[in-house]
Amino acid sequence: MIAADEAAFRFVAGRPSVDFTGTLGKRWRNPPVERTPDPAALGRWFAEAGLTDRPVAVTTTALRQAYPLREALYRLMRVPVFGERPTTADLKLVNDWAARALPALALRADLTARLVEPTAEELLALLARDGVDLLGSPHADRLRECSSETCTLLYLDTSRAGSRRWCSMDVCGSRDKMSRYRRRVAAAED
User: Fold this and answer.
1) For 166-183, what is each residue's pLDDT tens digit?
2) Any idea what DSSP says for residue 10?
3) For the chain, how many structural domains are there in total?
4) Among 27, 31, 24, 29, which Cα is nearest to 7's?
5) 22-51: per-residue pLDDT in tens?
């Protein structure tokens, strides 16, 4: 059983497609933390990510399609981070999803846009399109992996100097600073 804080959705990446890759956490662990283990969880993720006003009905088929898309996006986003080479299969999968129909948009009375009853598949296409837009832009070189030894989340570094180290200062940054402090105190006591 995974802890509730590990299973909680994390929205620290700066882009929906990058946050989507974080629905599989602690990738170094066996097994990693699957934050969308069932269709209802993916539907909640879409809503909590701000893609919809409410959870979307997700079929088991859509969930099974979401996992390979998420992993292809993750591997492609590692390309600018670690200088890895993209695979033809990952490029094809993401491009195929990005070419699909997107959800319809409508204006609310307050002149904000909303998606009109999107399907899970349309939202996956939207995430693929966001990933293509990011990876094909000059901002791709601002993709980073969290510096914490216990985190594998990717994020878009939007700091002015481009020197952000953690996915979240509140979580990983705080843990890292506390760990370094404890090591200094222990060393001083020795």
Assistant:
1) 665 566 655 656 665 566
2) -
3) 1
4) 24
5) 999 888 888 899 999 999 999 999 999 999
* CATH code: domain of residue 84: 1.10.3300.10
Q: Give which of 166, 187, 163 is closest to 175, Cα–Cα.
A: 166
- Which are the contacts of 86, defined by CB distance < 8 A and separation ≥ 6? 75, 76, 79
At residue 183, the pLDDT reads: 63
Q: Does some domain include residue 186? A: no
How much is the pLDDT for 118?
95
Please report whether residue 149 resides in a domain: no
Determine whether 167 is exposed, middle or buried from the number of CB atoms within 10 Å of its CB (0-12, 13-18, 19+).
buried
- With tokens 């204006």, the residue in question is 107
Give the pTM.
0.84
Q: How far is Cα 80 from Cα 78, in angstroms, rounded to an integer? A: 6
Percentage helix, strand, coil for the chain under 3-state DSSP, each rounded to 5: 50, 10, 40
| Four-residue CA torsion sign, 102, 142, 43, 117 | negative
Both structure tokens of 41: 């969880």
Taking alpha carbons only, the member of 123, 126, 131 closest to residue 54 is 123
